[in-house]
Amino acid sequence: MMTTEGPFHTEHTDLGDLESEQLYLEAANILQKLQLDKPVDEEWSLDDMEAHIEENLQDQFVQEALTQNIDLAQYSEQIQEKLQIHEKDFVQDFIGEANNIANLHVQISSCDKILESMDHMLKNFQNNLANISNEIRHLQQYSAELNIKKKNRELVRGQLSQVVDEMVVPQSMIQIIMDVPVTERQFLEQLHELSHKMKFVKEQSFHDAIACQDVQEVLEKLRIKTISKLREFILQKIYQFRKPMTNYEVPQNALLRNRFFYEFLLTSDRQIADEIRREYIDTLSKVYFSYFKAYSTKLIKLQLDEKPDKDDVLGADDRPRSNMSFFSASARPHLKHRATVFSLGNRDCVLKQELEAPIIIPHAQQKAETKYPYEYLFRSEQYALLDNCCREYLFLCDFFMLNNRSAPEFFTEIFEKTFKLLQKNVETFISDSYDPIAILLCMHLIYRYQVIANKRNVPILNKFHEILIHVCENRFEIIMKSNIDSVQRVEPHKFSSIELNPHFIVRRYAEFSGAVTRLNEEFANERISTLMTRLQVEILSLILRMSNEFPQRKEQLIFIINNYDLILSVLT
Predict the structure, then answer these.
(1) Is the sign of the CA dihedral 456, 459, 460, 461 positive or negative?
(2) Are residues 355 and 448 in contact, defined by beta-carbon separation less than 8 angstroms?
(3) What span, in angstroms and rounded, lies between the C-alpha atoms of 521 and 417?
(4) How far apart, in whole angstroms, are the C-alpha atoms of residue 151 and residue 156?
(5) Which range of residues forms the domain containing residue 426?
(6) Mean pLDDT across the stretch 191-197?
(7) pTM for this model (two decimals)
(8) Which range, of 11-15, 181-185, 545-549, averages the lowest pLDDT?
(9) Would you put residue 69 in left (φ > 0), alpha (ψ -120 to 50) or beta?
(10) Do 310 and 414 have their domain in common?
């Protein structure tokens, strides 16, 4: 191997310190890379050796040295010498900078102490922060506890204040209850307050509240005084009904304005409340009975003098008879009204314009000498009953706090005698009546008053109305059977002459049938329809029998057609 020591040394002898240091570092790097990974005493295999050599040959510095044919051993010695020289130089530099290094050491030590002190201070600060955090949590917990205690105390205070307010009886209440008239508003206000306090003390006494014993005596005295004043006031209003010519709405309205009086009595002293109920029932029962008895008596005197009798039937013969003397009994007294017995005319206005008209005032009509058909009197009486019953029923439910189950019994006790009286009066008239139109109008008046009562939420009259309808139906059936029999008894051959024009009996039937059909349009009655069907059969039979009195078939047919045409024209 050729040596390159001379040229290598000559090339690098004049380099500066920085360049020398760089060479030193590069040589050290080469030596480091040339070192084997394994210790010297380890055995190397050929494969390992070859791999290691191949790896080092890839190094840049090794390739450069091999390329320049540098002696590596010599190059290594040169590097070692330079390192020693630089080491000595470095030592001299360090020695020259000893004071500075010492000062730096002192400064670093001082900084360490300062940092240590700051570290200690920060640790103390951290500990203080931890303590403060614990104190804050403690204060928060304590604050929450205080807040809960505050709310509990406020709640207890509020409930206790309410209990005290509801239990304590102020002097102003005592004074008003004792001295102020019951009609004053402030008395009513204090009565409500007294009722509330009595209920509250009663409830608390069940829980053995000792404080209730302090006010029970005062409340009991106030209760007794209040009951006495309320009883006297209500009874005075009830006694006002007994005065003649009293407008019943006045005392009832006064009682309704103070309906709480009875409610207080009902909760405070049921015996007094029952006494008032019985007194009211007894008084109003007599009042209504007396009123309707007197009214019915005066009303019936206004009835028309002329009215149908048992001879006013469809089959009656209205023709004057030649064998009757001038002074003998005849049918002439009936001629004036018999034509209207079976016709409706304008009598049905009692179901329309007059249905809810003001009731008839008997003494005023007597002065005017005005007379009415029975259906007008019946309407006035029944409308007066309807109006009074509806007002009374609603009053009972409102003032006496009745429901739909208890109100009917209370109501019936008041009006039972009156109902029986009016039912008897209707039966008395109906039993002697031979006016089918009047009876039919009375039935339809009841139908309509039933509707009105139900619209006013007073269904209590339904039973009474059904009784009257049944009475009218029975009498109407009797009258209809009498008319049917009269048609059956007609003997056409006894007529002196039968003309081709419609017969007067058929005319009566047509008008009567038209009246019944017109009245039954809104409220159909199966029982009446059945009777009318029977009457129709008899009339058709009568027409055929009378047609047989004509000798020619043509005349018979003309007679039948004329009578049928009359019936159809009236019905349509």
Answers:
(1) positive
(2) yes
(3) 34
(4) 8
(5) 285-316+337-479
(6) 88
(7) 0.69
(8) 11-15
(9) left
(10) yes
